[in-house]
Each structure stands twice: as C-alpha cells, then as structure tokens.
Amino acid sequence: MAVPIAVLDCDLLLYGRGHRTLDRFKLEDVTDEYLVSTYGFPRQFIYYLVDLLGASLSRPTQRSRAISPETQILAALGFYTSGSFQTRMGDAIGISQASMSRCVANVTEALVERASQFIHFPEDEATVQSLKDDFYGLAGMPGVLGVVDCTHVAIKAPNAEDLSYVNRKGLHSLNCLMVCDARGVLLSAETHWPGSLPDCTVLQRAALRSQFETELHKDGWLLGDSSFFLQTWLMTPLHIPETPAEYRYNMAHSATHNVIERTFRTIRSRFRCLDGSKGTLQYSPEKSSHIILACCVLHNISLEHGLDVWSSPATGHMEQPEEEYEQMESMDSEACRVRQELLLTHFS
C-alpha cells in the first residue's frame, strides 16, 4: 500500500529513521569549545534559552512538533552566528536543511515575541540616574539617556518594481534605528525601515520619537550624529564649532556617541548572518526584520550573561551606504536654547 508522501516529514525521507533522528544530538555529549565554535554560545547560555523559549517552541504543529526546543535553538544559533544553512550543521544535530529553516523561523518568532522584555528604556529613577552616570563617566557629557544611530542590513530584492529598499549604494537593505546605553545594551531597536529612507526620516517616523516627545525627554536626551535634526530631546554636534567650549562639547559628544558604532560592530561580529559576508538575508523584508530583531534580543541577553565581545576584532562587512548626508541644522529655537545652555553650563 502506497504511503502518501505529503504526510512525511523531510527528515524521515532524508534519514529514514523518523523523528528519533531529531534528538540524536545531546548538549552533554559535546564540549563547551565545540558549542562556542559551532553555535556561538556556551552551554549554560543555551540552557537558559531552552528555559526561556521552551514553551513557545513546544507548540504542537503538523511539521515540527517532534523537534525538541534544544535542537531548534541550536539550529537557529548556528544560522545567526554563521550566516548560512550548512548541511554539515544540520547533519550534526540530525535534521535536514528544510527543517533547519523551520527551526530558524520558530526561534526567531519566539525571540521577537520577547523583544520588549529585553529591549527597553529603564523606568525607575535610580536606574535612569545610573544610566546617565555611566555615560557621564565616558567623556563628561551630562544628561545622556542613550546614543542613537542607524545601520543598514542587506536583504534580497523584494521584487523588481519595489525601489523603497534600495539604499544610496544601489543595494537593497533595511535601515535599522537603534539606541544603546554606555555598555552597548540596546534600549530600542526598530529594524523594519526601508533602506531608501535617510536616517533623519526614519527617526521622524519612528516610535522612538513619539516615546521621547511624550515621555522620556524631560530630564535628559539622546545623542545623535549630524544626520539627525537637533531636538530638545536629541543633542547633535555643532556643524562648525568656533569657541573652545564648542570644541569641548563636540569632542565629548563624539567620544560618547562612538558607543553605538562599537555596538554595531559587536552585533555583526557575533551574528554573521547580518554582516554580509555570506551574502544578503534571503528573506522578505518582514522576515529579515524579525531576524535582525531576534539577534538584537540575543545581543542583550548575552551581555546580561557577561558574554561581552567588544574586545573581539570585527570581521566581515555589513553593507553600509556611505553617509553623504548634509548637516541637519535645526530650526527649533527651543532645541538650540537647550544645547546652548548645555554648552555654557558644562563646557565653558
């Protein structure tokens, strides 16, 4: 009697041993060195992710219910940190390339669901003050609640007609708006903006702007580079500094804002699926956005667990259009007054 092929999982077809093959890889059977070199993270971190995501990854589905949360997480980490669906990686954990892809999708969505748990601005007064103190300790810039910038991640062309994702280099990308603290922990990450949008337009349309204009800007500000407009809640460098105080302000601004550039280098060094070294993300803009956000969540969790890779050399190349932006001069007189007061009070 013929068996309907449609009901068979591809792993059954590939290995001929049914769902048992999905559990043949055991974390306790390999060394920490192997886990770090192959999946990018040590054993205890992977166990933490299993506890965190296990319930979501155990949801019964027609095709992936037999794949354990542990195996799904290893498959996803392997992709995030290598940037490719390698057959040998699937072989190592006993699943096919097609199942690898499904595992990445499952883990990505589970992480995205928890993004607000791990990526957010502090709310209690003591933590906010600690945030400002940490930034002040870098270069003497007071009142800083975060540093903001955009970075591009290359994606495949959605279709021939859609030019909204074509950036200044003529490449398809997502323009991702992020804010981090003095340690590189992400406080905000909006990963869905089309690559054709300049940084200032992304910020104008972003939830971050609404958040600061209505809630968080009263006792501090973000630092942004000259691709953004000066706002009462966003301090930018002076285009042409003239006085010693203005030079000191710009130097402190630059040294503090550099944290976000280091954070971008850290993220692409750890998550090679984003750095362009293995090609663009071969997904729709929406799915690519979710993969980027999932990596951002993992970045914060890794810092929470003491896995700081700032000392590691950056590798690969994340597609970045050259910033040929014009200097954005604010017409906001109140914002100019706030910056001038900052100059006089702290840098004169």
Number of strands: 5
| Structural class based on helices, strands and sheet pairing | alpha/beta
Distance between the termini: 88 Å
Number of helices: 13
Q: What is the C-alpha radius of gyration, as a whole number of Å? A: 23 Å
Q: Give the fraction of residues assigned to helices.
A: 40-55%
Strand arrangement within the widest β-sheet reads 3-2-1-4-5
Mean pLDDT: 85
- What series of H and E elements makes up the topology? HHHHHHHHEEEHHEEHHH
Q: Shape from CA axes? A: globular
- Give the total of domains: 2
How much of the polypeptide forms β-strand, as a percent range?
Answer: 5-15%
What's the story with the biggest beta sheet? 5 strands, mixed
Sequence stretches where pLDDT stays below 50 over 5 or more residues: 1-22, 311-323
Function: Transposase-derived protein that may have nuclease activity. Does not have transposase activity.
Keywords: Cytoplasm, Hydrolase, Metal-binding, Nuclease, Nucleus
Subcellular location: Cytoplasm; Nucleus
InterPro entries: HARBI1-like, HARBI1_animal, HARBI1_dom
